[in-house]
Design a protein that fits this description.
10 helices, mainly alpha, two-stranded antiparallel sheet, 2 domains, single chain, elongated
């Protein structure tokens, strides 16, 4: 089983804290060497999941970092969910990001039925006002007048008309849809 190099304080947090001057990992320089520990893939996934769940036990099972390093660890950060999920490769039961455990969960709307969520979202007065304001910008108006955009609109219109005509006729071939 191959070992993974795990940054106790994740790379994104080191960059946010400005701790990037001493040794290089993937072209990025890091300040303190006690930030690195070698673990198995499963341990690596559980450590990131522990960071998300405010649980440092998986980390403390493999190393004992100094307190100043522990203080820099970001807990309950959504970026650790994705690291844990990718590393787990669906093999670790504790790591579950489906349904209500998904960080995208909003009363079941977005992750259960994205089309219904976006339809509801686009119907809100705030969204309509924002879109209307965007359509009034000079950049948007200039884009609508470009020859490429006009040609695309004409093509889309012809395609839509052909589909509607086929539907109204009630009979026909699949030729129009291919």
């Amino acid at each position: 089983m191959s070992n993974h190099k795990h940054h106790i304080v994740p790379i994104y947090k080191c960059i946010e804290l400005g701790l990037t001057t001493s040794y290089k990992v993937g072209g990025i320089e890091f300040y303190f060497k006690e930030n690195m520990v070698e673990v198995t893939r499963e341990q690596h996934a559980l450590i990131h999941w522990g960071y998300w769940c405010n649980d440092l036990k998986p980390l403390l099972e493999v190393c004992n970092p100094p307190q100043h390093v522990i203080d820099m660890i970001p807990l309950n950060d959504k970026r650790d969910i994705w690291a844990a999920q990718l590393l787990a490769e669906g093999e670790i039961e504790q790591i579950d990001t489906s349904g209500e455990n998904s960080p995208r969960w909003i009363d079941g709307r977005k992750c259960n039925d994205p089309l219904a969520y976006y339809k509801e979202y686009n119907a809100t007065p705030e969204r309509k006002a924002k879109e209307k304001k965007r359509q009034q910008t000079p950049k948007y108006k200039a884009y609508q007048q470009t020859p490429e955009r006009k040609a695309q609109k004409k093509k889309n219109s012809a395609s839509w008309c052909a589909r509607e005509k086929t539907k109204r006729q009630g009979v026909g071939t699949l030729k129009g849809f291919i």
